[in-house]
């Protein structure tokens, strides 16, 4: 099989390349290091592109912007891709508000460019879009919650397993980032349903792992571990640090993508997160990372939550598991933290 993977230097893009390389005929990456433009030197992904170039002989990266429509069209016209996996994005709530044109052009228009290129030249290819749980906006905050000692949790048994794919996505605040991803998400569904293409939206929870260029504005668990190892101060934004995320290792994301590509279902939507088993609040993450590194977490508190942020978000994975039996989370929260701490220790030593 021949793959095109956008955002090749990012956490998920690079994991997918390493995952598919042993079975692929060729893998072409698209990454112009826009993360460094968005987040500065700490967001630079060139180190990661070099890493996968050195280990995957059938991988080649193209320095291309997904907003460049003529180049994207020609890329699909000239290459026999069997699967297109779209990971490139502007991923930050806060940055989107200060750069709304860049945010929408990368997230929404870039996705449309790829979808139309696939429709014109590779209509039988699988098209996988890495969407986000932020398409639900702050609607999940309206679910009745209970405040526990170290976290918020759902008060109703109906949500014990988390948020399902049929949860409403409108009449709520999304953040500018969330709105641009909604546009891309709905367009991806439409190309599947209107044109019959093999498209899927994976609405990611907290996607994480060791090969992330985590920064304050994006990359919760990876960034937190980096801050801990550096002995720096982590800023908690609102909700007493009891806000909950479900965390999924990038290798388990790759496994889910693989399942879909092998047996595509046109126009589908799936949540993709660690579920209750891999959920934690910020306060709980502090304790977990101390157990891994032996270092106490230094923190400061800002009594203002990020716009559109979730108080408690856990992905209900029942739909995907029902469609693709046998897929399960393989990396526990402790595994994720241990592996990420080891990777950051190595990187920080240079």
What does this structure look like?
- By secondary structure, this protein is α/β, with parallel strands linked by helices.
- The protein is built from 12 helices and 14 strands.
- It has helices spanning 11-20, 34-39, 46-55, 69-78, 93-98, 100-121, 175-195, 220-230, 250-262, 282-293, 318-323, 333-348, and strands spanning 2-6, 26-30, 59-62, 83-86, 126-132, 145-147, 152-154, 198-204, 206-208, 233-237, 244-249, 268-272, 279-281, 298-302.
- A 7-stranded parallel β-sheet has the order 3-2-1-4-5-8-12, with helices on both faces. It has a 3-stranded mixed β-sheet with strand order 9-11-13.
- β6 (145-147) and β7 form a beta hairpin.
- α1 packs across α9 (250-262), α6 packs parallel to α7 and α8 (220-230) crosses α10 (282-293).
- The protein is globular, with a radius of gyration of 19 Å.
Q: Mean pLDDT, as a whole number? A: 96
What is the number of helical segments per DSSP (H or I, 4+ residues)? 12
The value of Rg in angstroms is: 19 Å
One letter per element, helices H and strands E, the order comes to EHEHHEHEHHEEEHEEHEEHEEHEHH
The parts where pLDDT drops under 50 for at least 5 residues are none
* Helical proportion, percent range: 40-55%
* Major β-sheet profile: 7 strands, parallel
Strand content: 15-25%
Question: Summarize this, please?
Answer:
By secondary structure, the chain is α/β, with parallel strands linked by helices.
Tag the structure with descriptive keywords.
14 strands, 12 helices, seven-stranded parallel beta sheet, globular, alpha/beta, 350 residues, three-stranded mixed beta sheet
């Amino acid at each position: 099989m021949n793959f095109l993977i956008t955002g090749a230097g990012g956490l998920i893009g690079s994991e997918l390349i390493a995952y598919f390389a042993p079975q692929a005929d060729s893998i072409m990456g698209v990454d112009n290091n826009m993360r460094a433009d968005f987040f500065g030197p700490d967001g630079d992904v060139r180190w990661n592109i070099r890493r996968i170039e050195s280990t995957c002989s059938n991988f080649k990266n193209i320095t291309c912007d997904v907003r460049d429509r003529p180049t994207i069209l020609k890329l699909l016209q000239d290459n026999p891709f069997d699967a297109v996996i779209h990971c490139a994005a502007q991923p930050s709530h806060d940055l989107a508000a200060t750069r709304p044109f860049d945010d929408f052009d990368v997230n929404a228009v870039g996705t449309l460019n790829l979808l139309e290129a696939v429709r014109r030249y590779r209509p039988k290819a699988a098209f996988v879009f890495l969407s986000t749980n932020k398409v639900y906006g702050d609607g999940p905050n309206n679910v009745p919650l209970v405040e526990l000692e170290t976290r918020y949790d759902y008060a109703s048994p109906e949500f014990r397993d988390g948020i399902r794919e049929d949860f409403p996505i409108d009449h709520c605040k999304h953040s500018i980032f969330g709105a641009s991803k909604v546009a891309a998400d709905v367009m991806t569904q439409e190309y599947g349903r209107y044109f019959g293409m093999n498209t899927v939206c994976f609405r990611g929870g907290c996607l994480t792992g060791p090969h992330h260029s985590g920064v304050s504005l994006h990359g919760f668990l990876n960034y937190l571990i980096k801050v801990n190892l550096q002995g720096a101060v982590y800023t908690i934004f609102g909700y007493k640090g009891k806000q909950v995320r479900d965390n999924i290792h990038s290798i388990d994301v790759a496994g889910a993508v693989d399942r879909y590509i092998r047996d595509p279902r046109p126009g589908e939507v799936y949540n993709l997160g660690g579920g209750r088993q891999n959920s934690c609040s910020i306060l709980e993450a502090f304790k977990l990372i101390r157990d891994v590194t032996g270092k106490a977490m230094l923190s400061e508190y800002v009594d203002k939550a990020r716009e559109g942020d979730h108080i408690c978000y856990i992905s209900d994975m029942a739909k995907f598991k029902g469609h693709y039996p046998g897929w399960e989370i393989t990396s526990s929260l402790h595994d994720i933290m241990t592996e990420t701490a080891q990777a950051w220790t190595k990187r920080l030593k240079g």
